[in-house]
Amino acid sequence: MKEINRIKAVLIEKNKTGKWLADNLGKDVATVSRWCTNHAQPSIETFTRIAELLDVDVRVLINKTK
């Protein structure tokens, strides 16, 4: 499976947990876990909200394709 996002890595860098993210987004912990393992991807709007919560540019959350 291709790793599309870096949510898990950025959470670690910011000393935050998946539970913290789920609570702040109003999402289920299992949903955030699927994002962190790249088994599913959040919407663009959710990527933007995650970036705001983690105080990073949204591009930091997505792996480069080239």
Automatic annotation (TrEMBL):
It comes from Mucinivorans hirudinis. One of its GO terms (molecular function) is DNA binding. SMART domains: HTH_XRE. Residues 7-61 form the HTH cro/C1-type domain. SUPFAM superfamilies: lambda repressor-like DNA-binding domains. Transmembrane segments: none annotated. InterPro entries: Cro/C1-type_HTH, Lambda_DNA-bd_dom_sf. This is HTH cro/C1-type domain-containing protein. The lineage of its organism: Bacteria, Pseudomonadati, Bacteroidota, Bacteroidia, Bacteroidales. PROSITE patterns: HTH_CROC1. Gene3D superfamilies: lambda repressor-like DNA-binding domains.
